User: Fold these one by one.
Assistant:
Number 1:
Amino acid sequence: MKKCPYSQKREAILAEAISPVAAELRLLDASDLISLLRFECHGSLVDLVASAAELYFLPGTVNFGLGGDFRLDWDSQPSITLDLEIRPQGVTIYAQLTLQAEEAGVSINHIAFENPCEDPEANTAFLVESLRDASFIKDFKCLTGPVFREDRAA
């Protein structure tokens, strides 16, 4: 996705929202995830992502996007990237979740709003509300923390 001024904010919001899912996936052995990616066992990856997401989101909100990659060298820790499709009400987000030994990260490839507003800030606020409605965790820090509040006040 071509980065724009509000991309970083949206990625931070999404990262916070799916961080519990990433934490669940990081409990899996990296070699198992790499094997599933290498041998294109997409059905198993669909099940693993769905199982990790079902604890935190409504069914069908976070899905494996049938793709991924890994980096496994002799001199570094493994890094696994999973394509995700996140579909809260009114928004479709295509993202890549990168899992590493001590951390995880997310990058949005494309985001589509069903009824986009002319104001990007309104779309970002809708994204937060949509993720909150689809999540069993309602108190995202990004609603009150610096990621959301600083740009909201501007």
Number 2:
Amino acid sequence: MEITGIGRRPTAERVRDTQERLAAERDVWVSTAHPEHGPHQVPLWFLWDGRAVWMCTGASSVTARNVRTEPRVRLALPDAFDVVLLQGEAESFPDEDVPADAAEAFAARFGWDPRAEEGSFLYIRVVPRTVRAWRGEPELRGRVVMRDGAWVE
């Protein structure tokens, strides 16, 4: 398959587009790993607060167990052409200890408040250290739009 008409966006445009997608998208693929059991990948709802990705999962889920053992994670928005990949370390918050503003923003966005459910949930916060974004082959070079936690200018 050949895709035509793809141009290379300037870095500032790519950063802006990435931030807009993070604010607008609902789902993210979360990749975790356990030292003994290997990789695990699952889609979760997420909230971008302008600095970090917030997700929530069952406290006993594989994802929750993995981030407690190995906090390094990779996240991917679900589009194989307009790619956005994030990498960072997960910080875990049991539902009773999550910052109220984050939990309320999550509940407002999705119409679901895990704190009101039976069972325990774990909120996961990831402040990206690296973000890569590209649309097709013309943008592979220069695809890093965040390095060491700072957006590239």
